[in-house]
């Protein structure tokens, strides 16, 4: 291969990013919280208590090893008994995530088993500060998301779209559906389910049993009720 051809070849290689796996980038589809749960092997609540860069590679790149304190496991009991460390790529372009070890941040995380039973966490899974989760999401983690995994969630590009009997139609960025869970009913069809005791708005709860929503006071019901949407 003469010098001109070598130069042309190198330019093509550099343009395509063949020599650098980081050039591939990381792209994630926007998904309902329930879908992320169902598609994950492991879902945990954990406190990050340490981190270090290790030479063990993923896509030819170094990784971050996070030491965690496992608070609760929501999914993965059949995969692992306990988890002390989780792993992710050092590069966000390879779907690596950055967690707050300095302040011992507490997160809800999802992942899957990697080499030798290690748990790998990535950008396209669940990575959410525990305090940022709504009350409904925390409740649904206990059993409703798992129960809803037999249903599918179809993404709609417009409102009022229809879904098949085994799925729920979801309009992205809908706060109501982000608070709800898609569960199969007794008649075999899937539908959105919401606990009415979980509000979709920020409530200023008063000691006298009243709540304020956008300046309007309502009396709270003494017992929470659950309804199908």
Automatic annotation (TrEMBL):
Keywords in UniProt for this one? Disulfide bond, Metal-binding, Metalloenzyme inhibitor, Metalloprotease inhibitor, Protease inhibitor, Secreted, Signal, Zinc
Report the residue ranges that make up the NTR domain in this protein.
26-149
Its annotated compartments are: Secreted
Keyword Hydrolase belongs to the record: no
Q: Name one GO biological process term.
A: negative regulation of membrane protein ectodomain proteolysis
Cellular component GO terms, alphabetical: extracellular matrix; extracellular space
Q: What is its main location?
A: secreted
Q: Which family does it belong to?
A: Belongs to the protease inhibitor I35 (TIMP) family.
Q: Can you say what this protein is called?
A: NTR domain-containing protein
**What organism does the record attribute this protein to?**
Ameiurus melas (Black bullhead)
């Amino acid at each position: 291969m003469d010098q001109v051809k070598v130069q042309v070849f190198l330019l093509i290689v550099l343009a395509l990013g063949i020599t650098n796996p980081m050039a591939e980038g990381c792209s994630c589809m926007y998904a309902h919280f329930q879908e992320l749960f169902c598609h994950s092997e492991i879902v945990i609540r954990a406190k990050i208590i340490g981190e270090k860069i290790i030479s063990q590679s993923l896509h030819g790149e170094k990784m971050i090893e996070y030491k965690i304190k496992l608070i609760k496991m929501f999914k993965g009991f059949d995969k692992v008994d306990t988890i002390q460390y989780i792993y992710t790529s050092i590069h966000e372009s390879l779907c690596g995530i950055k967690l707050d070890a300095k302040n011992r941040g507490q997160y809800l995380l999802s992942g899957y088993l990697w080499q030798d039973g290690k748990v790998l966490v990535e950008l396209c899974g669940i990575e959410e500060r525990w305090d940022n989760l709504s009350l409904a999401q925390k409740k649904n983690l206990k059993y409703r998301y798992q129960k809803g995994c037999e249903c599918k969630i179809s993404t709609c590009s417009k409102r009022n779209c229809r879904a098949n009997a085994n799925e729920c139609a979801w309009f992205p960025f809908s706060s109501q559906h982000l608070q709800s869970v898609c569960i199969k009913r007794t008649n075999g069809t899937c539908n959105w389910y919401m606990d009415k005791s979980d509000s979709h708005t920020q409530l200023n709860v008063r000691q006298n049993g009243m709540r304020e929503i956008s300046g309007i006071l309502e009396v709270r019901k003494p017992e929470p009720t659950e309804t199908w949407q």
